[in-house]
Amino acid sequence: MEAANCSLRVKRPLLDPRFEGYKLSLEPLPCYQLELDAAVAEVKLRDDQYTLEHMHAFGMYNYLHCDAWYQDSVYYIDNLGRIMNLTVMLDTALGKPREVFRLPTDVTACDNRLCASLHFTSPSWVTLSDGTGRLYVIGTGDRGHSPEKWEIMFNEELGNPFIIIHSISLLKAEEHSVAILLLRIEKEELDMKGSGFYVSLEWVIVSKKKEDSKKYEITKHHVLRGKSVPHYAAIEPNGNGLMIASYKSFKVVSVDQDLEESMDRPEKIKVEPLYYWQQTEDDLTVTVRLPEGSTKDDIQIQFLPDNINIKLKDIQVVEGKLYSSIDHEGSTWTIKENDGLEISLIKKNEGLMWPELVVGDKQGELIRDPAQCAAIAERLMHLTSDELNPNPDKEKPPCNAQELEECDIFFEESSSLCRFDGNTLKTTHVVNLGSNQYLFSVIVDPKEMPCFCLRHDVDALLWQPHCSQQDDMWEHIATFNALGYVQASKRDKKFFACAPNYSYAALCECLRRVFIYRQPTPMSTVLYNRKEGRHVGQVAKQQVTSLETNDPILGFQATNERLFVLTTKNLFLIKVNTEN
Prior knowledge:
Layout: E1 4-6, E2 22-24, E3 31-35, H1 52-59, E4 65-66, E5 73-77, E6 82-87, E7 98-102, E8 117-122, E9 125-129, E10 134-139, E11 151-157, E12 163-172, E13 175-187, E14 197-208, E15 217-226, E16 232-235, E17 241-246, E18 251-254, H2 257-262, E19 275-279, E20 283-289, E21 299-303, E22 307-312, E23 315-321, E24 332-335, E25 340-346, E26 364-366, H3 370-379, E27 415-421, E28 427-434, E29 438-442, E30 451-456, E31 459-465, E32 474-480, H4 483-488, E33 493-498, E34 504-509, E35 513-518, E36 521-529, E37 534-546, E38 553-558, E39 562-567, E40 570-575
């Protein structure tokens, strides 16, 4: 089954064509600062991690993790190997972050380690990578009630270091399993043209088969490979598929043995054509390679006005109806010195270019004459131009580069969103994202797949994947007006997020500054737009907060009421919504 080419359907009622922009608000936002007992376990890029993919995956890693199952609960890992948690109940009575788990081994001795990564699989399960190549599956019990007891249910060394992208918990026929998506960037020795690295996505399933057994083991391990770090990658909640959004496509390179048997065989090796042919406006020339030792007695050729038959010994080279008529009496054949048979056919309809020699025959190959291709290109030259606007006197020029701003320019390469079937690992759906720049992802409902936000024109549109709806898998659920245009002007932005209830979006720079963009809300006073002569009922506010620190921002998370910002030695809490 071929992959279906799909498109993202925008809900017009969620767009606001009359949006006037964000108004800067000077209202101060409450900001609380907590000093950490130990610094965050930041792992800087090594000298051999020099590519853009290393920077995307590890250099821009978000060290602050939000537990989507329990609002306003965030976690980070410090340099003592402790997983620290801060759960906010009351802003004015913040406690210190508390330790919930400690890594069993000292990871600082590992020279090639990555940042430790954490993902909240379900209300009672967590997946953890220590950054050295070891995977942990941890049962936490109900994290909403203290005290928590985190217990390791599975741990295994899986080779080179990796980070965890996504994980889900599955319960089918009393068999519990955890599906995890891992990412590595590995050296490719044979790659002489590119960066020398490839990105590996590994879909690992850890299962406990018997109810009375406590032992978990790896039951499936699939590997996909690509040349760019995915913007978005997530496993469907039912475990039946995988969605990946990236600049360059991913391909399956390693599957389980039982799946290998069900997959199609590799493509057949390309067979060399039986004959080659080329043409001019007056005639055609067919060339056939003769077997060694062939004589003219081995060659049988029959010319008819609309048919041709070529036979070499007992081998039928070509037989059938010609695309158009020929002068069969003027057609000839000769044997060349290089064991080649050359056949000349005279066209009856001069000037007619044939798309094929024999109708329906695919065993030959057309050789195009370079001079002929150049002549065709010259004929089409009037349809193209090297100049951006070759006719400036025209009333409506197609484009004027001087009117473009830097934030209007997109990447030249086109991204795509692909869905892979969990059983066959074949691509079932493909969406060409074109110039719809990926902005960020957010978990709106932890029982569903993470949402992703794309730039559409000047707006930022939020999309919710629905794996159960095969005909319409991606739903447009919210719009952040003009945010696609606004964020493009923030050159130093590092992290991007939004509230799960879409009430605001926020981004932070590498140092200090946090920008908040609120959805339009009704005004308490009446405003009047003099240019358009109408009353303004709603205003969208922009707010800026500057943190009192010079340490780089390492983590950034948004909830409905608060923003959490993590630096090397401090955790900041910004109260965004106070209505609740």
